[in-house]
Design a protein that fits this description.
alpha/beta, eight-stranded mixed sheet, four-stranded parallel sheet
Length: about 350
């Protein structure tokens, strides 16, 4: 007899967990202990579903590393008891949270699927039911009694993506997320089709490990035409600053003004870690292809290759806590740890 997968549903907040009060028109969170009553379709699923909710569900705009840890701890505490996990999360910062957790969990052997919705679960035209039901199905996929997926995914509007490859592209369409530099892990149509060739393969010989400590002393500096010396100098002189995500043009290009390169060189020599990521939705940093990126490469700026800003933030927070030398940091950051870069 086929084993029923046990799935833990973790509700953090967000539109998917809301239901409309038709007297007032306001959205309010509903009790997830009554989930089966609100979504009777879940009774058809062959999986066993348990639920847990944040005591005080939050809007995803208020997510921070403390909330990430709360989600991670919830999963870690229940890791042995369940076969898969589904995290319900507001869509605005879902890619940030899911990307960060991909670095916090090392040697993950079970699926953690993030999902949400653009409309509340009680709305007539909601996308919440399909996103939730299919996410649970995906989290419960097994082959020979073992989970098919062993990574963190993000499911939205018929597609499952590697979470640390995603970014939110649209605030109004149901197809809110994209993964420009990596193909979907699975697609839901008449059949649920899994692309087994692109799934992340964790080391089955190693036990799962949760990294709890993240460094928050970072910032994102987006380059724009007209950025001034005073602005760059002011931002990079922030007290206790340890890391910077430098969002550059195209394939990693930035102004090659002497003042700009001198500031970066001085900060790098003082121990600041600077990572170059592209502002483009798709594509990769390739420092040295153009004269306007050669200087960045020469002074020791780290290449983020085709990593998203969301994943770069999580990876930077994770690695800065390891107290690595500049050379080792550069080598590790430029290496794919969880499938986050090509």
């Amino acid at each position: 007899m086929r084993k029923r997968a046990k799935i833990l549903l973790v509700y953090t907040g967000g539109t998917i967990g809301m239901i409309k009060d038709y007297e007032t028109g306001a959205l309010k969170a509903f009790n997830f202990d009554e989930l089966l009553q609100k979504i009777p379709e879940l009774k058809i699923l062959e999986h066993e579903i348990d639920t847990v909710s944040f005591e005080h569900p939050i809007d995803s705009s208020n997510m921070d590393p403390g909330c990430w840890l709360q989600i991670a701890e919830t999963i870690a505490e229940n890791y042995e008891e369940f076969d898969g996990f589904v995290v319900l999360h507001g869509s605005d910062t879902m890619s940030y949270t899911a990307s960060a957790l991909s670095f916090m969990f090392e040697n993950l052997h079970k699926p953690i699927i993030f999902t949400g919705s653009q409309l509340p679960i009680g709305d007539l035209r909601t996308d919440a039911k399909e996103n939730l039901i299919t996410s649970i199905q995906i989290a419960g996929l097994q082959k020979k009694g073992k989970p098919v997926l062993s990574e963190i995914g993000l499911y939205f509007e018929y597609k499952l993506y590697r979470a640390n490859r995603t970014t939110k592209l649209n605030a109004e369409h149901f197809q809110a997320f994209g993964s420009p530099n990596y193909m979907p892990l699975a697609e839901s149509g008449v059949y649920l089709s899994v692309n087994n060739q692109v799934l992340w393969k964790s080391d089955k010989r190693q036990e799962m490990k949760l990294h709890r400590d993240l460094c928050r002393d970072i910032l994102v500096l987006k380059i724009f035409p007209g950025i001034t010396e005073d602005t760059v100098n002011y931002m990079l002189s922030k007290k206790d600053l340890k890391g910077v995500i430098l969002e550059t043009y195209g394939s990693g290009n930035a102004p090659n003004f002497k003042w700009f390169l001198d500031i970066l060189k001085d900060k790098i020599s003082s121990g600041l870690k600077i990572v170059n990521v592209t502002q483009c939705v798709g594509g990769s940093v390739a420092m040295g292809n153009y004269e306007t990126s050669t200087g960045l490469k020469e002074i020791g700026v780290v290449s983020g290759k085709d990593i998203t800003t969301e994943a770069a933030i999580g990876k930077l927070m994770y690695l800065l806590q390891k107290d690595l030398s500049p050379k080792v940091f550069k080598t590790i950051f430029e290496t794919s740890l969880r499938g986050e870069m090509s």
